[in-house]
Amino acid sequence: ILDQVAQALVDCLAAMELSIFNVNHGYCEAVVRGLRSGFLGVEDYRRLGTSDTLEDMRSALEESDYGTFLQDEPSPLMVATISKKCYEKLADEFRYVKAQTVEPLTTFMDFIAREKMIDNVVMIIQGVLNNKAPIELQEKVHPLGVFEGMKVIMSETFDVQGGFDDVYRIFLVDTPIGPYFEEYLKDADREKDEMSRAGIETSQVGGILTKQDLEIMKATLKKAWLEDFNEFCQGLGGTTAEVMGHMLKMEADFRVLLVTMNALNTNLSTESKLQDRNALYPSFGYLYPEGTKELRKVWNDTTVRAALEPYTKYLSLFDQVKQFYEAETSVTEGGKSVGQFQSIEDLIYAENVHMYEMAFEQQYHFGVFYGWVKLREQEIRNVRWIANMIILGTKDHIDDTIVPIFQPRL
Fold this sequence. Notes:
Helices cover 66% and strands 0% of the residues. By secondary structure, the chain is mostly helical.
């Protein structure tokens, strides 16, 4: 009887989701679905592709949903300027949508921003290590990952010579990624068992961070964020748990593939460093636990392929990537051009775009907010790639490089 009551309750909640969702989140979802129509279309990309200079690109973008966002920028226009202004436009739209939200959507939007906070934190640490002035870091800040304490760090009066004490305190107090950062420092210093249990003293942070590889630190923080985000989404239940669960599992798997492929032929694939590489694998996903367990043992192309054999889709990706790296090494020997193949990042970008587009096919869930942000980021990458190819005079490769979004279906 209890099982029947529980099932009836689940069915009732599922039916109520359709009405309750719109009461709290219907307007925000409608806004994001409206913003979907602002993505660059076939004709927009054609105009961008026929641009001969960045000034032509400025004119082409003015005819799109981007409008006159570059009108106040002086000539000559730089690629970095176009990219930064695009991200600022995305951040403005993101903040507008977030301002209309109520819980739990507000926290969900915070989780999306946390990924960019990690990028900003690592960038600031890199600047502190290099004794760079805050004004030099300002241009590299991701607008989506801005947090309150950054105003202090970016001020002219902030003393980077003072080391990590103030920076560390700001990260822990003023950012929601503080727990990820603290846990990373504990693990990084785990040789000292007592300190690992008791926590890290502020004065010792500098000594720990100066010994760390910042790229590995960024990957570790993002792994912690991804696991935390997945746990939050599963706690929400309903269609959000289903749609976000699929997207985050795929992202976790792609992260495993990226780490594994990029670690090949480096010291991270040596026996002594395998533990460091394996620590970057998320503890969920479609590969987890069986596939991840096998990938933890790999050290070369052959062992990677054997580990991926039960996973047809990922095996296909690996085979395509293998051609890319083989072509890369044979170019100097008169082999095929690398341009005929794609890197693991290129293939993952294309797979992700399709996945995020599909999030818009269902209703009454938070996945559309995540999908919209990720698709807009891909569009900005497209614009940046086109701008770079115009500068380099390689416009012939534009169609092979960009990943179109919401293209007409034949």
